[in-house]
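Researcher: Re-running this chain for the archive, since the previous output was lost when a drive failed. Same request as before.
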Amino acid sequence: MSPLTTSEVGTPKALDIQHDTDPARDHGPAKHIPHIGHALLFFIIAWLSLSLAELILLAAAHLHTEEAMRAHQTLVMFAQGISYLPTLAIAWLLFRELWGMPFARGIEWNTLAVRRWWYWIIGLGVAMSGLAQFALRFVAEPKSSPLDQVLRTTHGAWMMTGFGVLLAPVTEEIAFRGFLLPALAIAYDWLALERTPAGLQKWQSSSMHSRAALVFAAIFSSIPFALLHVGQLQHAWGAVGILYGVSLVLSFVRIRANSVAASTLMHATYNLTVFVVLFVGTDGYRHMEKFLR
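Model: Regenerated structure tokens:
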């Protein structure tokens, strides 16, 4: 049996990490975080960081039109990668103050799950990547996507590898599985809460999410995750649909392992598998024309 399905994972104590169940150590009502307001604030920070990075880099390169930006996708991708760093730094500093607890605990990073089940997580990431690449054979492929421009050169391929395996998985998982997924689950449970003293007591005594809330959150947090990549895929909706399915699997692992670190490792493994196939198929990124033809 997979360790991810053991009863240990699903115990209330493992899930209810934001509230003490021992009355002698109680610190007041349970903290329901990150909620919708926190998620919106995170995405605003991310948008401002990206806008500022693009403004600075594109202005420095004297690129002032949409046409010029489309012709220099490597620089645009570099700006996106650079913007992830201040986004994470600001979020780490800001939310630990708002929450009164470490940032990693607030988003349920939980490296213990990775240490316990890393081999299952990596294996599932490789399998999911292979299945997704196989499924792409049956859908319309994007035509001349922005990624193709970045991957025309060995330098661009290496830059994309670093971005896709390191920065993108960490930032995207924190955004969608660390902030948006629990925020939607909290909103669902709040709306479904019985408006009675017993309901209020239940809300204040535990930060656990109902199963229905987690299913709802996984389904709807995966929509913006897939739409984030629409531009890169040139609106190839079949490929976008496959990414939506990938997001559902990432959400499942994050929920079952109670760990954003687990979904991040799987996301990084998924991307790394894609780049390993590309690396081998282009003789170490030396013949990118094999990929582009």
